[in-house]
Amino acid sequence: MTETWAAVLLALASALSQALGTVMRHRTMDRAGGRLEGRFGVLASRYWWSGMLISLAGFAFQGLALAFGSLILVQTISVTSLIFALPLGAWMNHRQVSKTELFWGHVLTACVMVLVIFGRPTGGEAHPTFWEWVLACVGGLVVVGILLRFARRRHSNGGRAVLFGVAGGAAFAYVALFTKGVTQRWHEGGAWEVATTGEVYALGVAAVAALTLQQMSFEAGAVHQAVPASTVTTPVISLVLGVLVLGERFQVDGAHLVLLAATLAVMAVATVALARKEVGPGPPRAGRVAVVGGRRSAGVGGDGAVGGDGPAAGGDLHDHDDDNAATA
């Protein structure tokens, strides 16, 4: 019981750190006002690096949590990062969290509690056979490859952000899977045991892929599109990997499994509902949007950056119908 509580607390610390780091890194794009050059322009931002360091701290908390608890347990709790990200994003963008967001946040929290307390996920085999690893990795590569192919065919930024977010979420599930193996190797034989087995190298590849895909989702769309897509995908893929690869299980059967399945469905609905909420813009200011030559033109952002088709750098520009905008 003590180890389970340690895993729960560490997983919550990981979720909070990941939420704050994610919002800060996405906020870098807004603060730049379109002035970042290329995909790696964010590397020049101290704000982005601060968010990255906080995210890495979250990754460390996750690794410690996986040392005490099962993959299913830790990754189910990780979905609370979305609950943390909503108020953090609202605070950074000077807006209030709506009653609807609070409602669905509470629903999502309740679902996590049911899965953890009622489902009581238990551990399995930390070191599957070589062929089980190969099949799991090939399956992940195929899924991510299909998602990227569809994402590049999408014309809307929102669609690309969601698909990149789902691909990043799948990659983060593999990060957690390999982290579980690495922590067990460390516990069994220390650094030498870790260095002479394949999990740590697979972990490095998966981590780079996950962070790259996440950054691509941030660049493609808004945080309320990218973060929920990634957040809901990670625990779902982790549950599948935990059951099929590690042999983990919920300690219920029969009709109780139906209840858990219904809880997972409600959790997905709550996440989608939260994904449809804007995490950033507040009420528009007078004269902020104008129609110029039949096109919408955004005014100057809150911190001096000139807005484009998306939210201004200050994060307080809403999209309005043309007939409600001032005509230049």
From TrEMBL:
Residues 296-328 are annotated as: Disordered. Residues 299-313 have a biased composition (Gly residues). The chain crosses the membrane at residues 59-90, 102-118, 130-150, 162-179, 225-245, 257-275. Keywords: Membrane, Transmembrane, Transmembrane helix. It comes from the Bacteria. Residues 316-328 have a biased composition (Basic and acidic residues). PANTHER family: CONSERVED INTEGRAL MEMBRANE ALANINE VALINE AND LEUCINE RICH PROTEIN-RELATED. This is DMT family transporter. It comes from Dietzia aurantiaca.
